[in-house]
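Limitations
The structure tokens in this dataset are predictions for the assembled complex, not deposited experimental models. Users should treat interface geometry with appropriate caution, especially where small molecules or nucleic acid strands are included. An illustrative entry is reproduced here so readers can see what is and is not provided.
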Amino acid sequence: MNAIITSAVCGVIMMFSSVFVENKKTYRHIAAVLLLLLLAVNVADTYGIRLFHIDTKGMLLFDRFGYFFNSIAIASTLIYVVLTGRDIEKVGTYTAEYFVLIFFVLCGVTILSSYNTLLMLFLGIEILSIPLYILTGADKRNLKSNEAALKYFLMGSFSTGIMLMGITLIYGATGTFDIYVTPKETITGQPAIVYSLLESAGLILMMISIGFKVSAAPFHFWTPDVYDGSPGVFTSFMATIVKAAGFIAFIKLFDARADASGVEANAFTGVDWKMLFAILIVSTLLIGNITAVFQQSVKRMMAYSSIAQAGFMLFALFSLNDVAKEGLLLYAAAYSLASIGIFAIMVKMKDHTFEGYNGLSKTQPVLAATNTIFLLSLAGIPLTAGFFAKYYMLASVMKTSGYLWLVIVGVVFAAVSVYYYFRVIQAMYFKDGEATITEEVSKGFKVGIIVLAGLIILFGILPQSLLQWFYF
Amino acid sequence: MGTAQILFWSLTALALISAIMVLVSKNPVYSVLWLIVVFFAISGHYILLNAQFLAIVNLIVYAGAIMVLFLFVIMLMNLNTETEPQKSIWMKFFGVVAGGLLLSFFISFVISSADLKGKSAQLKEGEIGLIKTLGKALFNDYVIPFEIASILFLSAMVGAVVIGKKD
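Predicted assembly:
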């Protein structure tokens, strides 16, 4: 509860700071301090120090998993603001308001990590999405940004409609908004198959709409255009923290019904959830990876790569066991940190195509080296956080007997992803060219990005250094 | 026949006639105006069913806000001329089939329901539709979603200002 209320209050404080503070540069400092405060408050909450004593009537359920994810999300946002705060100032005139919207998105993230009823899930998804529509269209003079915002808004409201339909059907089947429902609690008097069918249909609709939010194929069509069109700094935020939050919402919803999603439990409705998720995973991996190979712009490549990474995170939803939950947290951290780093370097580049990176190692050796580490982490090379993230995901599937082929598919596509990540490394180190950056890179930025790369290597060598916080 | 019965039948007649007029009117503006009459009649029915809150909300949201939007769209797109695009016969046919199916579904639902037999109005019966009941539910069981929705609206307002204000 601490994080939800504090993040909303931080948003309001940012709003007022835009009235009373004239200097544009102060906003990011205020935001960074508020994020630190938010992180401290959330950690305090994890260890039982509650600032607010509110009876949530079972609407919200706070557990270790949610707290830990909140900490990861807030810490990633802090790193994001510290690294790219300067670029947020360049997007438009409303710098403080962008930070306000980021705080509100964080509020949505914290709700999604602790919701216990479908009502709160809906509110969380909306609080997460609506500021994002605005951030997408923040660059008002840019036609592509406008197009992306409108597209995202229209498609997003459509998927919200689908989600509401799903919630309605589940409510009709179970008579409650709670996500933890045992089938016995359903209304009696009608044959159970009717309710079971209704609930399955509702869950499939929920899967479609959250699948849209995390851009799982075949609901990914908005992703490349929106990620490409929106200002680079906000793409970074959208593709990392927000997407990870979508997965947390996803896994909470289906984890609550883990027993009911088995093949046996759904024998008479005929929905094989494992198979359904397997299809979702394979199509997401296929479309994300194969399309990413053909991209010419790094920004667009990252959009497709985020689809491909979403495919890997979907493995957690497939297996739904303890390894999967741990792995998803590690994946969220590894993927967010690496992507934030890549985007932070990308927004400094003048040319976002692969050619634009040619010869970066000569002009900016630090940026090139750290960028390499981030790319290696995304590809899942050992000694980086991405390796263990992928390892946990595949290990969780190995625990589910009978789906070895899915692991093989995952490994094959991880190998495919190496190709397009290494294209950037190749351009930076082995091609001649004059990679130009828009402005001189400050010392602070360099230190920040080296620390970020160090974190990725730390989690890659000792993943327990992150995960042990989950247990005590 | 009591007052409730007279009210019920006159409201029903009003609703049906104006609903037909919505479809029959050639001019879209008249259609929208007739639709407002339909909403008023249905709100009257809600009051007869002792659901005052629903009646008021129906008036404010549908007859007020949504209808103004409708009128704006019609006026902005300059549709108030009596030119209606010719629809194919198949479209009309399937429209009739779909509408007829929906109607037969509703009728069979009403006929088969034991609770609804021979009832037209439920004045002063039950309190589920009263504002008092709603307020109690909203501020007891659903107070957390209710309060958190305010963050949603606040973010939407900030967003509207960011998008809408001139640079």
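Some entries come with short summary sentences. For this one: Residues 272-472 of chain A form one domain.
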